[in-house]
Amino acid sequence: MQTIPADLLFKAHNPLGEGPLWHPDQGCLYWVDIEAGDLYQSDPALCAFTRTHFDTALGAFCFTKTGGFVLATGEGFLAWSPGQAASNCMWNPLPGRAGVRLNDGKVDPCGRFWAGSIDIEQAQAELFRLDPDGGQHTLLHGLGIANGLDWSPDRQTMYFTDSYQYTIFAFDYDQETGAIRNQRPFVQLPKTQAEIVPDGLCVDAEGCLWSAQWNGWGVVRYDPQGNPLLKVEVPAQRVTSCCFGGQHGDLLFITTARTGLSAADLAHQPYAGDVFVLQTDTIGQGTHFFGC
Fold it and tell me: Are 258 and 14 in contact (CB under 8 A)?
């Protein structure tokens, strides 16, 4: 399998950097630090960044067609607009147990926001869907760590990761209704001492899936049949997510984490928690916005 090194973009030192998302109108990159509750925004030149703090864990977010955000948090789905002092709860489907929060999320091709929860202790996490008309849906139950998801270019397949099961699943996806069925494993990593698990992901315009690997030091690109094609090497052990963006849609942005690493580990990987970028030979599918 071919390997390519990614380049350092930002020295962010995030404890748990996650959920990168490109804003095509603003021409800048956003991402979160889950543990710190911070939302990051780059400048259009990709030279600097700012951050906004929230008093809750911030697992993921999406852009809305009206110019605001929907945040997937430790308090459920929240609506927020820049300059707004406080966010407003749209739906809190969480059970209220300690350690349970929303984790990764993404908007589908029809403007619905999907986000899953994390519940390692009881493996009772779920996958939720919030529709622009206010519809609230719970699609999957009995998960451990709901993680990366995206859709195929033909809108026929949804990919979804349960890191607890070391598995990326594929589903038949009905774009009109948002229904999913026919769950089957797409990629299943072996349970080894290295504990390399699939985390966030994105799908490019060719239908290939790019999966960030926690403890795997990189991102692996798979073809539509699940065969590994390429590994993007990152000088950080805990690679969390990735997305396409840039002026031409051909830059792969990669987030990483440093949480749980020992002082000895961090001494050997000073870039843990930073943000990386790779110039690719393909393009992404573009960013979907929440709304009708």
Answer: yes
Residues designated as active site: 199
Which among 44, 52, 196, 62 is positioned nearest to 128, based on CA atoms?
62
Hey, is 125 helix, strand or coil? strand
Query: 223 with 183: CB under 8 angstroms?
Result: no
Which CATH code, of 3.40.50.620, 1.10.3720.10, 3.20.20.80, 2.120.10.30, is assigned to 2-279?
A: 2.120.10.30
Q: How far apart are alpha carbons 141 and 274 in whole angstroms?
A: 33
Q: What is the DSSP string of 247-279?
A: TTS-EEEEEEE-TT--HHHHHH-TTTT-EEEEE
> 194: which DSSP letter?
T
199-217: pLDDT as tens digits: 999 999 999 999 999 999 9
- Nearest CA among 275, 257, 236, 246 for reference residue 10: 275
Instruction: List, for residues 143-200, the tens digit of each pLDDT value.
Output: 999 999 999 999 999 999 999 999 999 999 999 999 999 999 999 999 988 899 999 9
pLDDT in tens, 84-140: 888 999 999 999 888 899 999 999 999 999 999 999 888 899 999 999 999 999 999
The string of pLDDT tens digits covering residues 53-77 is 999 999 999 999 999 999 999 999 9
How big is the chain by its Cα radius of gyration, in Å? 17
Closest CA to 35 of 10, 67, 58, 66: 58
Q: One-letter amino acid identity for 242?
A: C
Unique residue bearing structure tokens 């930002």: 10
Q: pTM of the predicted model, to two decimals?
A: 0.97
DSSP letter (8 states) at residue 284: B
The pair of three-digit structure tokens given for residue 255, joined into one six-digit string: 């987030």
Residue found by looking up tokens 């748990």 in the block: 16
